[in-house]
């Protein structure tokens, strides 16, 4: 831990002056010898993220991939319309194919279960608060997890949804077993990918979930080793619903009921470091969604955008407020903003409205007012 912060600073300093040069060199067929600076940056990357390669040929291949990824991060930085910063991440030595294979959905989505898009009529007229962050209420959002090389974002997002709603409804913190969702899934795909509705249907089929303590995450699946009947259930759901593909309605439901799951295009997250991502449909296709995460809040970014901060005097600098969503990822606390990231709210960035799903854990007879922390 003591080495991480200074290494991050050094990487940022090196990359700032290096990426533009790499972009230029990659445009020609034979760029010639790699500059010493690139090799130094790659060494720092290897130390920070504990990377080693089996032979010199593999090292050279990963260095080339790293250079392309730095150039891509610089391009994203120039294209982004928000406050996002892109650069070196734990995935900077992976190709697009490798990254997608491990962290995106592998199984084709197929037909979504017949759950109608809905939002309760009582939410239709309720005003949306200016900010909402369920992380600010104790015992609602469980700690950030790391899926590592297991393709289980869908299971972790569903588990986070159930945990949050259980805490809101019953005032009791709970962490449920992601491993049970993988071992006992209705499709049997485990770490090979899945979708949030697969996880919810598994919970319904098994009449609940065991605790993460009793049935801990292993990061791999053994065929036909479902242990669902072995442990006591600590949480269960009554059903699940899909919300309307409307960001205003999603915000209303989020503020009055609690966190929900969404599935987005993860293309830009490979290079994401911090800030609010504001992409266009061209840079982040909203129809191609391949990564499930937990939506935990929303707000507005009051910071000046980078282009203004550099070129305009403080007296005349405009303060453009950028509305954003707050999302919990499953790539560890050292990625992004301590495991979280922010997307622009209002233009269906990266397809956030395509599959907004949530479980329901409480009795739907009486409506109990829920207050979302600012």
UniProtKB/TrEMBL annotation:
It holds the Pfam family Inhibitor_I29. It comes from the Eukaryota. Residues 128-360 form the Peptidase C1A papain C-terminal domain. SUPFAM superfamilies: Cysteine proteinases (SSF54001). Keywords: Disulfide bond, Endoplasmic reticulum, Glycoprotein, Hydrolase, Protease, Signal, Thiol protease, Zymogen. Residues 1-21 form the signal peptide. Its main location: endoplasmic reticulum. GO terms for molecular function: cysteine-type peptidase activity. Gene3D superfamilies: Cysteine proteinases (3.90.70.10). It is found in: Endoplasmic reticulum. May have a specific function in the mechanism or regulation of T-cell cytolytic activity. PANTHER family: CYSTEINE PROTEASE FAMILY C1-RELATED (PTHR12411). Belongs to the peptidase C1 family. This is Cathepsin W. It comes from Microcebus murinus.
């Amino acid at each position: 831990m003591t080495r991480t912060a200074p290494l991050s600073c050094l990487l940022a300093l090196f990359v700032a002056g290096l990426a533009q040069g790499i972009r230029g060199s990659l445009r020609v067929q034979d760029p010639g010898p790699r500059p010493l600076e690139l090799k130094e940056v790659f060494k720092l990357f290897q130390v920070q993220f504990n990377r080693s390669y089996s032979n010199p040929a593999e090292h050279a291949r990963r260095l080339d991939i790293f250079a392309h990824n730095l150039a891509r991060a610089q391009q994203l930085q120039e294209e982004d319309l928000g406050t996002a910063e892109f650069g070196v991440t734990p995935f900077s030595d992976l190709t697009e194919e490798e990254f997608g294979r491990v962290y995106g959905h592998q199984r084709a989505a197929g037909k979504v279960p017949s759950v109608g898009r809905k939002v309760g009529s009582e939410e239709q007229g309720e005003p949306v608060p200016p900010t909402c962050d369920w992380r600010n209420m104790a015992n609602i959002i469980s700690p950030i997890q790391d899926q590592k090389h297991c393709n289980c974002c869908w299971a972790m997002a569903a588990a986070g949804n159930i945990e949050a709603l259980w805490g809101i409804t019953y005032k009791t913190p709970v962490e449920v077993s992601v491993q049970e969702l993988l071992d006992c899934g209705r499709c049997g795909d485990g770490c090979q990918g899945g979708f949030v509705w697969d996880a919810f249907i598994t919970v319904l089929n098994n009449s609940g979930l065991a605790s993460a303590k009793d049935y801990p995450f292993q990061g791999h699946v053994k065929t036909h080793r479902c242990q669902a009947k072995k442990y006591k259930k600590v949480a269960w759901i009554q059903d699940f619903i899909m919300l309307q593909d409307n960001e205003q309605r999603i915000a209303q439901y989020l503020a009055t009921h609690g966190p929900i799951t969404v599935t987005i295009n993860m293309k830009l997250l490979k290079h994401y470091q911090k800030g609010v991502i504001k992409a266009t449909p061209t840079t982040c296709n909203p129809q191609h969604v391949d990564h499930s995460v937990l939506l935990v809040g929303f707000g507005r970014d009051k910071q000046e955008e980078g282009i203004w901060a550099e070129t305009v005097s403080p007296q005349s600098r405009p303060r453009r407020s950028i509305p954003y969503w707050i999302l919990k990822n499953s790539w560890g606390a050292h990625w992004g903003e301590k495991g979280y990231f922010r997307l622009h709210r209002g233009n269906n960035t990266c397809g956030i409205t395509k599959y907004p799903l949530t479980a329901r854990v409480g009795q739907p007879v009486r409506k109990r007012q829920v207050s979302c922390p600012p």
